[in-house]
C-alpha cells in the first residue's frame, strides 16, 4: 500500500496539534485525568477527581491508556504544561493514525487501491478527523478504540 497517503494524514494530525493547541470543554475530564496520572502517579489522594468527581460517572480507561502512552514525556523529558499536553496529543494522534492505516489496508484489500487512496486523501484534507484524532474528548477516544 502507498505510504505517502498515510504520511499525509500524519502530517495533518501533527499540524492540527500545533496550530490548535488548546482544549475544548469536552476534553476537560479526560485531560485532567491524564494530567493527574502523569503528574501524581499512584498518589491517588492528590488526584483532582476525588475532590471534584463530576456530575456524571465516567471511566478512566481512555485517560489511563493515553497517560501510559505519554508516560516518557514527564519522566524522561521533564516537560509540563503545554509541552505535556502536546506529548499526550501526539501519542493519541499516533494511535489514531495507526488505526487509520489499518483501516486503509482493509479498504484496499476489500474494495481496491483507488478506494483506499480516496479514503486517505479525503481523511487528510478534511478538518474534522485530523483534528479530533488527537483529542481526548470522550466520544473521540471511544471512536479511536473501535477502529483499533
UniProtKB/TrEMBL annotation:
It catalyses: an alpha-D-Man-(1->2)-alpha-D-Man-(1->2)-alpha-D-Man-(1->3)-[alpha-D-Man-(1->2)-alpha-D-Man-(1->3)-alpha-D-Man-(1->6)]-beta-D-Man-(1->4)-beta-D-GlcNAc-(1->4)-alpha-D-GlcNAc-diphospho-di-trans,poly-cis-dolichol + a di-trans,poly-cis-dolichyl beta-D-mannosyl phosphate = an alpha-D-Man-(1->2)-alpha-D-Man-(1->2)-alpha-D-Man-(1->3)-[alpha-D-Man-(1->2)-alpha-D-Man-(1->3)-[alpha-D-Man-(1->6)]-alpha-D-Man-(1->6)]-beta-D-Man-(1->4)-beta-D-GlcNAc-(1->4)-alpha-D-GlcNAc-diphospho-di-trans,poly-cis-dolichol + a di-trans,poly-cis-dolichyl phosphate + H(+). GO terms for cellular component: endoplasmic reticulum membrane. GO terms for molecular function: dol-P-Man:Man(7)GlcNAc(2)-PP-Dol alpha-1,6-mannosyltransferase activity. It holds the Pfam family Glyco_transf_22. InterPro entries: GPI_mannosylTrfase. Its main location: endoplasmic reticulum. It is found in: Endoplasmic reticulum membrane. It is a multi-pass membrane protein. Its EC number is 2.4.1.-. Residues 1-19 form the signal peptide. Keywords: Endoplasmic reticulum, Glycosyltransferase, Membrane, Signal, Transferase, Transmembrane, Transmembrane helix. GO terms for biological process: protein N-linked glycosylation. Pathway: Protein modification; protein glycosylation. Mannosyltransferase that operates in the biosynthetic pathway of dolichol-linked oligosaccharides, the glycan precursors employed in protein asparagine (N)-glycosylation. The assembly of dolichol-linked oligosaccharides begins on the cytosolic side of the endoplasmic reticulum membrane and finishes in its lumen. The sequential addition of sugars to dolichol pyrophosphate produces dolichol-linked oligosaccharides containing fourteen sugars, including two GlcNAcs, nine mannoses and three glucoses. Belongs to the glycosyltransferase 22 family. This is Mannosyltransferase.
